[in-house]
């Protein structure tokens, strides 16, 4: 039985189907299912001159050894012009020892790694010069390379060229930045999995199913005058449900992925002077928040991150909840309640004799009830079991550290972060999440259309929309140079 919404949609579509057919049948752009990668070449020319040879320091400054990366059609010739031996004719993936000279003398003894296109990170002729990490040496070598015809690379330009030259798709390119920024085992595993193409493989499998279904519907459109039905509706429904469920699973994984990437948000809330700031300082191992006996000391949100058992937590210290006439303090309390609503875990803090604040929590939110200052008093009051405050209960001293190990264990347990497997796909990128949400909406419309017996050309359009949204993740459907610039501008210069 179709839903009332689907029936309404069916009637509306029936009224416009003839006009829509004319547009759809004669618009070649709308008939596209996914753009080939070659279309990005026009974007490439707008972003950079592909004939340029670029150079940059690829390692963090301050180390004993530094690596300078060179890439482009003249990379080998330019490097050879400042190197003590010729690199012409040397095979790819070889190491060469020699000196870098500036005409007045030797700059440094170096090792040059040689990579010939397309067997390099960027897909272009490339070299990597390993030298001593002296800023003077690094600057001297870069100046020589620029003098010989190279230019300073833009942020992320090496990885951008790798993407544009087909060495990796856009999701894999973004994973490079995530790998560099990884701070724990979980984020490292996520980035490695994505960079190795596991996420891309998932999307390609979904794309193949969608393209098959779209091709059958397009075939029906080509024989519309003969009223031939090539796509079995039961098969179409079953395949669409399978795709929808997988997209939903990937979309739902974003909550975990984002928590791993940015930290599990934990809000510490309670009445004034129950020890929220002291608890934050204990968890961080630093005097981050100001502590005093004056009520209302904390008026704004204070947050910082710390790792507990390999999991990154983002703790948020909040203003004490109480009735007040102070307008600034009222604003702080409002922000407290908003922070509590966004947090994945809430530490509801109090001390003996002070009731827990009456706060409503969203469904699925984890609440840890904590009684502080156990070093000065023993809990005894009946308020501890206030009917609206549910969750586990702990007795701690934020000053002495008593009870803190158990609280930390509870935080790790309630974070419920799964062990990331090597080939597991977890979405952590906001751009990917947004594209998946749009794809899910499109495939849902496909199912509604099939249920309501919507004409095939309209269902096909929704299928094309779903394919396009998934293709945006890997970059096969991106035409905007603004999107690419936004992504790669966040990279460091040498990557």
Q: Can you give keywords for this protein?
A:
46% helix; Gyrase A, domain 2; alpha/beta; 12 strands; 16 helices; 495 residues; Rossmann fold; 6-stranded mixed sheet
Topology:
Layout: H1 4-26, H2 28-31, H3 40-47, E1 54-57, E2 65-71, H4 75-81, E3 94-101, E4 106-115, E5 126-132, H5 135-147, E6 151-152, H6 157-164, H7 170-181, H8 185-195, H9 198-222, H10 233-262, E7 264-270, H11 276-284, E8 302-308, E9 311-317, H12 327-342, E10 345-351, E11 366-372, E12 392-395, H13 404-415, H14 430-451, H15 456-474, H16 481-488
Helix pairs in contact: 6-7, 7-8, 9-10, 9-15, 10-14, 14-15
Q: What would your notes on this structure say?
A:
The protein has 495 residues and is α/β, with parallel strands linked by helices. Among the domains are: 54-153, Probable tRNA modification gtpase trme, domain 1 (Gyrase A, domain 2); 263-415, P-loop containing nucleotide triphosphate hydrolases (Rossmann fold, 3-Layer(aba) Sandwich). Helices cover 46% and strands 16% of the residues. The chain has 16 helices and twelve strands. It has helices spanning 4-26, 28-31, 40-47, 75-81, 135-147, 157-164, 170-181, 185-195, 198-222, 233-262, 276-284, 327-342, 404-415, 430-451, 456-474, 481-488, and strands at residues 54-57, 65-71, 94-101, 106-115, 126-132, 151-152, 264-270, 302-308, 311-317, 345-351, 366-372, 392-395. Strand 8 (302-308) and strand 9 form a beta hairpin. Helix 14 (430-451) runs antiparallel to helix 15. It is flat, with a radius of gyration of 29 Å. 38% of the residues are buried. The model is unreliable at 1-47, 289-300 and 380-390 (pLDDT under 50).
């Amino acid at each position: 039985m179709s839903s009332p919404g689907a029936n309404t949609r069916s009637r509306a579509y029936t009224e416009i189907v003839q006009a829509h057919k004319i547009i759809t049948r004669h618009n070649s752009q709308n008939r596209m299912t996914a753009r080939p990668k070659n279309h990005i070449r026009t974007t490439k020319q707008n972003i950079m001159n592909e004939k340029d040879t670029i150079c940059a320091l690829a390692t963090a400054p301050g180390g004993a050894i530094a690596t300078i990366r060179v890439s482009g059609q003249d990379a080998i010739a330019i490097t050879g012009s400042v190197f003590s031996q010729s690199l012409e004719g040397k095979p790819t993936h070889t190491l060469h020892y020699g000196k870098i000279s500036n005409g007045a003398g030797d700059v440094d003894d170096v090792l040059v790694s040689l990579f010939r296109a397309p067997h390099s990170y960027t897909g272009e002729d490339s070299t990597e010069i390993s030298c001593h990490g002296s800023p003077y040496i690094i600057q001297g070598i870069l100046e020589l390379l620029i003098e010989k015809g190279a230019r300073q690379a833009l942020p992320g330009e090496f990885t951008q060229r790798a993407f544009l030259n087909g060495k990796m798709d856009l999701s894999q390119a973004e994973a490079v930045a995530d790998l560099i920024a990884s701070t724990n085992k979980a984020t490292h595993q996520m980035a490695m999995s994505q960079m190795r193409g596991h996420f891309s493989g998932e999307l390609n499998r979904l794309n193949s199913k969608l393209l098959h279904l779209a091709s059958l519907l397009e075939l029906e459109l080509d024989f519309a005058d003969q009223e031939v039905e090539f796509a079995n509706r039961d098969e179409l429904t079953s395949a669409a449900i399978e795709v929808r469920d997988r997209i939903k699973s990937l979309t739902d994984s974003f909550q975990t992925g984002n928590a791993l990437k940015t930290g599990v948000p934990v809000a510490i809330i309670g009445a004034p002077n129950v020890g929220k700031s002291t608890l934050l300082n204990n968890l961080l191992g630093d005097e981050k928040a100001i502590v005093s006996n004056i009520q209302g000391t904390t008026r704004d949100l204070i947050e910082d991150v710390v790792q507990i058992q390999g999991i990154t937590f983002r703790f948020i210290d909040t203003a004490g909840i109480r009735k007040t006439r102070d307008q600034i303090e009222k604003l702080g309390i409002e922000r407290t309640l908003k922070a509590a609503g966004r947090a994945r875990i809430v530490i509801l803090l109090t001390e003996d004799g002070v009731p827990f604040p009456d706060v409503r929590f969203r469904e699925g939110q984890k609440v840890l009830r904590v009684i502080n200052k156990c070093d000065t008093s023993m809990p005894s009051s009946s308020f501890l079991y206030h009917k609206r405050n549910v969750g586990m209960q702990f007795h701690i001293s934020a000053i002495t550290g008593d009870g803190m190990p158990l609280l930390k264990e509870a935080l790790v347990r309630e974070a419920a972060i799964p062990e990331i497997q090597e080939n597991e796909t977890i979405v952590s990128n906001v751009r990917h999440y947004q594209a998946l949400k749009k794809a899910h909406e499109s495939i849902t419309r496909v199912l509604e259309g099939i249920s309501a017996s919507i004409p095939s050309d309209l269902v096909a359009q929704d299928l094309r929309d779903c394919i396009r949204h998934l293709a945006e993740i890997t970059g096969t459907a991106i035409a905007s140079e603004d999107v690419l610039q936004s992504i790669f501008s966040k990279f460091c210069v040498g990557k």
